[in-house]
Amino acid sequence: MRDALKKAPLAAALLALGAAGYWFASGRPVAGGLALTGGWLLLAAGMMQRPRLQSFAYPVAILASVTVALTFPQYFDHVGSFPVKNLIVPLLQLITFGVGCTMSWRDLAGVLKMPRAVLIGVLCHYTIMPFVGFTIAKVFGFPPEIAAGVVLVGCMPSGLASNVIAFIAKANLALSVTVTAVSTLLAPVMTPLLMNYLGGQFVPVSFSAMFVDILKLVIIPIFLGVFFHQFFHHKAKWLDVVMPKLSMVGIAGIIVIITAAGRDNLLHVGPALVAAMFLHMTVGVLLGYWGGRLFGLSRLNSRTIAIEVGMQNGGLASGIAAQMGLIATVGLAPAVNGPIMNTTFSLLATWWGRRAPEGDTLPVGNPLQKVT
């Protein structure tokens, strides 16, 4: 009986997805959109009941949110006279504050423990992804503002979810945390610099405005979170439970708002943009891994670098696009990148987690130990 209950959501999901395909083919997009949304939600519910599939439930739920936004974009444009897109910046600030609440000054001690690996990771991140993004934008021939969004994703610091992926992949978590922190701290300079040089070939880019935006969107909230963790965390440990859930809801909300705002553009370039973002991420992972090996890092550390290179901070890219007033165009690539990145890296992390490189296991009780 219990097994039947576990299979019921997955069976219902297949029926709903099949019905969605029929209604779309019959020229009934609203009915198809509703059925597709239900199918994604049922699939996510079924995955939550299976431990091996639980990590994929959130990306599937994001697909449900995207489907709703594509089907009923009018409900995510304005609430009364309030433009819903104005929520993107405060949502991102809340998410990054929550990340800061989980960090302490000790997290940066990894720089002292393994400076060479951190330097290689940050160097690979800020060279591989921007130039690969620029090349892809050129090759695919996207309209200028869409192309600028692809480059913008490539110029972001490491994604905030990379540490979770590194943990699932049984990679070097200390190295992952440190590369994420260092690349984020460098973002106010590196992101505007790279965007001005590469993205500026598609749209006007102001170095000073983007510098201020990144300070406001990420750096200040994270430092406020670290400060809160340092002095008040013992009085508000409930944040450890609440903030991850708020972050997940916030990320989903940002993706929905951008999808609804850029619906027409997304329907026009959607398949090509999905292919471009998947290619961007895949090339980043491959070059990140082999870049680490080329510089003499262990296979375990090279896996960590691959994760850090391939996972971009799409939330920050969305916030910058909103500040530029180009959320419906420049913001599309970050919105598309999010579900693709989360799903693909969940699969990769699960596969790597079951295949630890022989001789590269980190010593228990010494998480900052460098793997040689």
Topology:
Layout: H1 2-25, H2 29-48, H3 57-71, E1 78-79, E2 82-83, H4 88-101, H5 110-113, H6 115-140, H7 144-154, H8 162-168, H9 173-197, H10 207-232, H11 239-261, H12 263-294, H13 299-310, H14 314-323, H15 332-353
Antiparallel strand pairs: 1-2
Helix pairs in contact: 1-2, 2-3, 3-11, 3-15, 4-10, 4-11, 6-7, 6-9, 6-12, 6-13, 7-15, 8-9, 8-15, 9-10, 9-13, 10-14, 11-15, 12-13, 12-15, 14-15
Tally the structural domains: 2
Tell me the span between the first and last alpha carbons: 51 Å
Instruction: Find the count of extended strands (DSSP E, 2+ residues).
Output: 2
CATH class placement of the largest domain: Mainly Alpha
CATH topology type of the largest domain: Na+/H+ antiporter like fold
Order of helices and strands: HHHEEHHHHHHHHHHHH
Instruction: Examine the secondary-structure arrangement and name the CATH architecture of the largest domain.
Output: Up-down Bundle
**Shape assignment:** globular
Percentage of helical residues? Answer: over 70%
β content, as a range?
A: under 5%
Quote the average pLDDT.
Answer: 83
How many alpha or pi helices?
Answer: 15
Major beta-sheet overview: 2 strands, antiparallel
Structural category:
mainly alpha
Strand numbers in spatial order across the main sheet: 1-2
Tell me the Rg in angstroms. 20 Å
Q: Which stretches are low in confidence, meaning pLDDT under 50 for 5 or more residues running?
A: 363-372
